[in-house]
Amino acid sequence: xxxxxxxxxxxxxxxxxxxxxxxxxxxxMRGDDQTAEELFALFDARPTAxxxxxxxxxxxxxxxxxxxxxxxxGHTRSENADAIRLAGHLNLARLLVGQGEWGAAALELExxxxxxxxxxxxxxxxxxxxxxxxxxxxxxxxxxxxLQRWSPPVAEPGSPPERAYDQHARLYxxxxxxxxxxxxxxxxxxxxxxxxxxxxxxTAVPGELATTLRADVAxxxxxxxxxxxxxxxxxxxxxxxxxxxxxxxGQEHARYVRASALQQAGQNDEALRWLEDTFIASPGQVYYxxxxxxxxxxxxxxxxxxxxxxxxxxxYLELWSDADAGISPPGS
Amino acid sequence: MSALKKFLDELRHxxxxxxxxxxxxxxxxxFTVILDVSxxxxxxxxxxxxxxxxxxxxxxxxxxxxxxxxxxxxxxxxPRTGVRRFFTxxxxxxxxxxxxxxxxxxxxxxxxxxxxxxxxxxxATVPQLAIFPATVRGGADSFLHEGIVDLLRGKLAVIAxxxxxxxxxxxxxxxxxxxxxxxxxxxAATIASERGWGLFILPVITASGGEIRIQASLFDAxxxxxxxxxxxxxxDAVDVFAHIDELAVDLVFAQFGRASARLVRSAFQGxxxxxxxxxxxRGEQAMRDSQHDVALEAFQSAVEADNTFALAYLRTAIVxxxxxxxxxxxxxxxxxxxxxxxxxxLADRLDERDQDFLDAYEAFRAGxxxxxxxxxxxxxxxxxxxxxxxxxxxxxxxxxxxxxxxSPMEARAVFEEVLRADPGFTCPI
Lengths: 332, 429
Fold this sequence. Notes:
By secondary structure, chain A is mainly α.
């Protein structure tokens, strides 16, 4: 159906840019490398007029990490647009984390820093704070130092909307890093500080970040699953549209912590629902896929569904077959 | 005889030619006033027809009265019969006043107690009206080819118990390769009938030497041999948007009656600025072509031309939202942060459908999934054919379901409904 819809759309799109763009998506869906390469070259000459995230997303969402990697590597070779090169490095870093290859991902973050140090810093902070990823302490401390040095400016009119929450994002990430480094008390102070920051639009964002941070502290400190779930109760499940695709604000961290607590509490059906349903096509699906498959396998084992559990475990193992030594979801 | 006495005598006993001249001049004046009042108040067409009949009947009566009264003054031309007593100026004038008073009374009665407009039976579907693109001749602005669909949709959306097919859906279904192409009635009927659109409008726009003429025919898709209604308007090409307004009122009046036509006349689409309209319509066309960067700039130009143009603010916000997932467009999207606040501030200038859409869309943008889902569903209950509302319902489920602990895959069925309604729907997948 998706392919049929796409072909119908290709016939209907009348603008040249739109048609070529959709042809690229179609090539990616078909796994047609040659056509995709030709279209990448075309787009590279007109970098501001197309949307390169869709082909990448389609490859990722389809689980075709090798095509996604080729798309992202194609972007890193762009000679005409720093933005595309930067997107290539950052997407590669995410893809590599999705395969448990933190060392290789860190190299891509260095490449990204050469183009845009600020974006690279944010991406590093996001990836190091992922709830399932155990990475060297030095890398955590480096991310922390970078964030502490960062002093987000007041958002100017006309700047991207998410900039209004830069200060919130900084405190949130510092809090998650503190929690991950074992300083729960400090993390809770950051949570309190987040809700003290001004929010001109009066959205749910500050409250959702602070709640997630408090739940993360409870989860990492080994509190009972009931405590963790209680800490998540204030979440309103609201997310302003401009922040859907921002990995800091998308609430995937909270969903993973919730699913993990539900699994630990033996609430298997509920855990399965959150794991199976709520990471589909999310901004971080590419790196949450393996650890959520791992948790799904555990839940299915506990539910007496060994064959399905084996299938989920196979997906996880295939994705993380080349993972760095010592990288694995908690408890594996 | 003094000159003054002679003049007064002439006034008392005018010649037949004088009476005829006065009657024709007076009748013309009365008829002009009736025409103006009738158009302004959207009176039924029979008012004008019967007025003309009364004036025509009054002419021989007046001439006979004049003849009789002249004969009476000369005493030898007219015998002393009852005719003299009947054909007096008093009777003639009184009869005329009575006849027009009766016509006025009947008209007023019909306005106060209008015939009940047909209501769809419980469970019956509300008819869908497709407005097809115009055939444009003689070098008229080509943006009017599709633009008239947006313009008429905006005007006709106020009619109760009628669903206007989404402009993009109708335009793509028509499949006209260029503005000059003629969409034959039979072909249009087939297109409409296949899609369950009971009614359709075929417009034609002809330009010539600074003048523009716009014609539109309304057809029943199942029996398109004769149009249900015809309307045309035209004049100076500079006033094209006023002519289209006039056309819409006439067409609706002819088919749906005075009350609907009044609604259409009073529907305010948001701008008096020709530049704003032109840019807006170009933006709509670019949006349908998936050229979102072009559409954004066009809508922003429309807002620049008229900063009270609420609909242009709303469309700017929507197209910016469609683009914002792509970092390459951030330099454009960043320039549209005031679009949604602008639309909200001017919401009372939008029609009912667009106000409903704005409410739902605002909830979606604010990330309130429950409110957005409820509002889009409410819109679709009332207007099941609203493809844009259905698309954003799907977007709501896709984007906001995960944070609510629900699967974004719920959006799939809704996206498929969008594609069934409009296989050419080209918003981002």
